[in-house]
């Protein structure tokens, strides 16, 4: 090998060490100092420092010559005009700057100046078509492969290049068949459920299989889509005796025994239809979605016993309609949506006892009307909305209790205005001089001041 200027100065000392795999490093410009230091032979000896600054402390520590200072910085782009990107920016200086020769000579050759072409020229000389400077892993190969006669889809896009091209690392990229069986002969031989070879299924794998995976959602079941439990059941459960053609596709053809054994409710006894999918799904038999409409238009045909046994309220004694759907839903009997309009137009026909027993306030003594819906709703008796029939329920009068104006207990026909406000007869008589119809009485106050204002 050709000796560098550094080697010329210390050839007699360095040569034996060089042949042994290491070389003496001169501690500083001017001659050897103390014990010699060595470099890793795999990187080669350091280049001559004769053009470097004489201040060794700019780069080196006092610990040894191989370790550069932690705060050592060198702007390669500014100092040399060559910017280092990716993995090149973190590579050790000696990877490029050693005794192999001037770096510029190798740089002119591009990637091949430093990196061996393991593909032996079969992929061209431009490494950047597949590689970039951060690492050697190829980039964008899926998109590149889409331009070939075998685009990569599903599991093919996730596998490594070596799985199909075992010689790609050494540069050998052989032409492969695009037929599935060309790569999947071992899978074909292992396919025993069902036995593909016995059935003669040795080609056109894509008829049943997708490139995502072999089984489950990756399996095409022509003519009958597999969902739910049908995806996990063995093929032999339906294809008894290895028969894989001309099978019926209706549910009852396979599930007639399930139909006959279904007793809650009794499917055969009640004449349920044999279109299982009307109520059942493929993931599980239960819960079933029962469609009442195709059973019959009258609920009581099945639920007469429930109708007759109901005592709260007593449907039979009260003459309730047998159109159960007027109040009940198919999900549950209670709570029921009771439509009063379908029973009677007068609440008091059923609630006269409630009307007469009410004391707060006393409806009967006060002469309240028996049109209960004026104040009450069908959800609850409490929290009644009382229409006072006068606008005096607004403003300052809005939150008053009944007894604030109705001073006679139980007599809500009687009320007082003059006992609540700070009035006196003499002052009011004087203030109302000339007012037609004026009398000092609550009825007169309300007649002239229905909104409580002057």
Describe the structure.
The chain has 454 residues and is mostly helical. Among the domains are: 5-107, no CATH class; 308-374, no CATH class; 388-454, no CATH class. It is 22% helix and 0% strand. The protein has 16 helices and no strands. The protein has helices at 5-9, 11-19, 76-80, 103-107, 141-145, 155-158, 161-164, 180-183, 185-190, 196-199, 251-261, 300-309, 348-357, 402-405, 425-431, 442-448. Mean pLDDT is 78; it is low at 1-37.
How many H/I helices?
Answer: 16
Subunit organisation of the chains: single chain
Estimate the strand proportion: under 5%
| Helix-strand makeup class | mainly alpha
Instruction: Count the beta strands.
Output: 0
Shape: flat
| CA(first)-CA(last) distance | 121 Å
Largest sheet: none
Helix content: 10-25%
What's the alpha carbon Rg, rounded to whole Å? 50 Å
Q: What's the mean pLDDT score?
A: 78
Features:
454 residues, mainly alpha, 16 helices, 22% helix, 0% strand, disordered N terminus
